[in-house]
# Entry
Amino acid sequence: MRKGALRLLAGILALHGVAALPAARLQAQDPIQLGIRYQPGVRPGIVVAAGAGLDSVRKIIERDLQFSDRFELAYWPDGAGPLTGPLNLQLYRETLGLTWAAELRPAVGGVELLLNHLPSGAARIRGVRGVETSGIGPGRMSIHVLSDEITLAASGGKGIAASRILFQYSDAIWSIDSDGANLARVSRGTGIAMSPAWAPDGSRVAYTELRDFSGPVVIQNLTSGARQTVPTTTGSGFGGTPVFSPRGDEMIFARGSEQGTDLFRVDVARMCCVLALTASGRLADNMNPTYSPDGRRVAFMSTRPGRPQIYVMDADGANQQALDPSAGPGTGGSFAPDWSPDGERIAFHRDIAGGRQVLVYEFGTGRATAVTGTGRNEDPSWAPDSRHLVFRSSRGGGSQLWVLDSETGAMRQLTNLNGPARMPSWSPSFSGTTP
Amino acid sequence: MSRSLSVLLGLAILATACGKKEEPVVTPTPTAPQGPVVNQDSIDAANRARAEQARRDSLARAAAAAEAERAALVNEMATMIHFDYDQSAIRSSDMALLARKADIMRANPNVRIRVVGHADERGSDEYNLALGMRRATSAKEYLVRQGIAAGRIETASLGEEVPLDPAATESAWAMNRRGEFEMIAGAQTLVRPQ
# Structure
């Protein structure tokens, strides 16, 4: 394969008239390597070519497509220079067997994108996109939006590039882009912030802030930084594990006090009207609510059977039932459920044989499968594509965030910080809006 | 002056001298040898000063003793209790500690305390907040059963967020599963329970 890849490289260089690097100088020991991976399942091949001044954009898109786990990438060689003329589509279709070729060219107002479907010769996307081409800072999100557009058109699947992950690090809430760039502190308080949650439009976040021996739930506007405290979460005790409803007008949180820890719903549009959804009192703790995507049901953790288990109820608190505790390996406690955006699965973590693993429960089969196998893995959060998960893991030493493709099992490390990264929360997709 | 006048003057002077009576020679009566002068006022003042200093020294010793006793009582009140894994029940080994705290609080009606429950790093991060709250509440209830008014005891939880030992070992976890006690009022004047 490597020999064939090198021939391809030579061919590409030749066809694009890059005479400075004749094929004879390329040897088997050259460090340049084409990033074509052969994985089980159908993964269409794709190449991204960019015109002058768009090298940063190309690299970000290549990485986004790689991280989507939906394509076989044919990386554009760095030494090949920018795209100067029409792309030789026949080369990519016949020699490499690719399915897609994306061309990026500078244009007034941003970048012109041309996505070619090679077998048919048809252009699937053609248009100018308002893209920040520096590849640095908040403007990177516009490039991720472009990546997701390519992903959707070329694979039929939802992209995850235009999204961020909130997490706790060093007693504060931070955010990071889905590709691991743009680490930024979010929470503005002075206490210990934890349990972050996104509003569905991505404009606000909620978190618990432990301060002065109290633990209110705070809602913070990401643009203005303005903060509000959720009613009934001040004073003694704590307000924990907040979650916004899919419409963003309500929130469910756990309130812990000497009377126990129960779930409450609050109208966050009017910041009023707190209603109890569980009433276990001192008999059990109820925490970690997560809405179904249609907003009609809520899954949560409860200790009412003794050991923590995952329960599901109607959004008004009716019909509270446990998921089958025997579903899946291990008999330890089950914690921290997260409902997938497509509504078909719940991810959670369970103590198994001295470790802690992430499990995915499928509503269709009623079975739970472990998607991690070693070490300590916890607090899973679904990506917008309902396929990838971010979670906290001890693999590699320490405690960092990792991203898992639940379809292939592929994993990549998201954070590499000087302390534990905890309690991740994956945002909704920002494709269609650029926050 | 004429000669005769001089003679007369001389005779006059002579007559005067001879006219004085010779005073008797008085020999002073001998007295006892003189010692130091006794100033009773000074003695009294010195005695008063010594007495005052002694009084002050006594007060200082008493104050130091009282402060040492107060500090000892503060230490007793601050002594932590510990919990078994994933449990909030008071260990039998900690009951005497709590009973002692109750004694101190009964003897000092102005004392108010805060109990903060903590957890080790196992279990989910958020579950441990609830567990810490249960532990703090459990300690409070024990004190209330000992006759301490509930209004004198506040509770809080810090979950696993503030470990005493961040290591991932059994001994560190055991240390971190704890209830901490802080006096939030009445700590300045404490008396030992009878």
Summary: Residues 15-19 of chain B have pLDDT under 50 and may be disordered. Chain B touches chain A at residues 114, 116, 123-127, 129-131, 133-134, 136-137, 140, 154-159, 161-162 (CB under 8 Å).
